[in-house]
Amino acid sequence: MKLINSSVEEFKSYSQFKSVGEFNYHLRKWLEDPETKLSKKEVQAIRKLSCFAVKIIGVSNAGIDTVLKAAQKEISRATFKRMIVKAKAAGILTIYRLIRENGAYSSNLYVFNRFPKEESTAQSKPTIEPCPNKVLSQHNLSSFKTKNKNNKEYKERNNVTRSKMTLPSSYTNDKVPKTFVKLVSCFYDCSDTIVEFWEMARKAAWEYHYENDRDLLEKQASLAFKEMIAKLKQQKVKKPIAYYYGILKNKLDSVYQLELSELETKYTAPPADHWLNMP
Questions:
Q1: What is the pLDDT along the chain (279 residues), one digit of tens a residue?
Q2: CA–CA dist 247, 39 (Å, integer)
Q3: HSE of 76 in the Cβ direction (CA atoms, 13 Å)?
Q4: Are residues 11 and 56 in contact, defined by beta-carbon separation less than 8 angstroms?
Q5: What's the order of all strands across the beta sheet hosting 93-99?
Q6: 242, exposed or middle or buried, with CB in 10 Å at 0-12, 13-18, 19+?
Q7: What is the dihedral angle through the alpha carbons of 257, 258, 263, 266, rounded to the nearest 10 degrees?
Q8: In this structure, how many other beta carbons lie within 10 angstroms of the beta carbon of residue 241?
Q9: Of the candidates 226, 273, 267, which has an alpha carbon nearest to the alpha carbon of residue 248?
């Protein structure tokens, strides 16, 4: 299907989202889906394309050169084209070829699709036949108890059952910021736990491409940790690390949406015949 290129407002009817927040939610669900097999650079490319799909939410007619220029050489043309092929195959994007009024080819129209709702289907569980009960003779039963008793005594004599060694916060890996270590160690003076909190922060940051922005990540991770501790003291938290991870993702999502809003106010689409829209 070929459409005549115009301002992006003319393609408002193709939008499937009511708000930027809803659009970001569905895009995030797409990227979290294991079936969406995009590389890290390709994820970066589709996120950069999504920045041009906020004026009309989920719809963009930005040319490849426009997106690559905004990416500041972080992604290549080949990566962007490879992302388009994979995203189309996965169902993330529907792509329409745009033409100029003179019939010449122009840029594409990229329409982001909603993430399909998963229908829970009741699957029949295989029935497992119970094993027939075996009658132990008095001799076998007494022999079994004796072996277990001897095994337990052996472990106790040789001190085999030891608790896992834990190291204090001073042994924390250098990759974790010192200020973050100092904060977490006030409540969890264990190097393994501190590293786990930081790794969860890096995992959340990776989804928004903030993993290299150390200052931003450290600030948001510290705020999320303090908020989690406050709820923990109110006895409202059962799983501290999972609760902390959820808070941090919400904070990073707010930062990301703020950046999108700022970009939306600054972005003005070039004319249809501009060289940036050349395929």
A1: 567 777 888 888 999 998 888 898 999 999 888 888 888 889 999 999 998 888 899 999 888 888 888 887 788 889 999 999 999 988 999 988 888 777 777 788 999 999 986 433 334 444 444 444 444 445 454 554 555 555 555 455 445 444 455 788 888 878 899 999 999 989 888 888 898 899 899 888 888 888 888 899 999 999 999 999 998 888 888 888 889 999 998 998 888 888 887 776 766 666 666 665 665
A2: 26
A3: 3
A4: yes
A5: 2-4, 93-99, 105-112, 59-60
A6: exposed
A7: 150
A8: 15
A9: 226
Judge contact between 257 and 46, C-beta under 8 A: no
Q: Tokens at residue 44, please?
A: 């970066």
Q: Tell me which residue has tokens 């041009």.
A: 52
In the numeric block, which tokens belong to residue 97? 């070829």
Indicate the residue type of 49.
L
Select from 152, 176, 269, 262 the least CA-distant residue to 225: 176
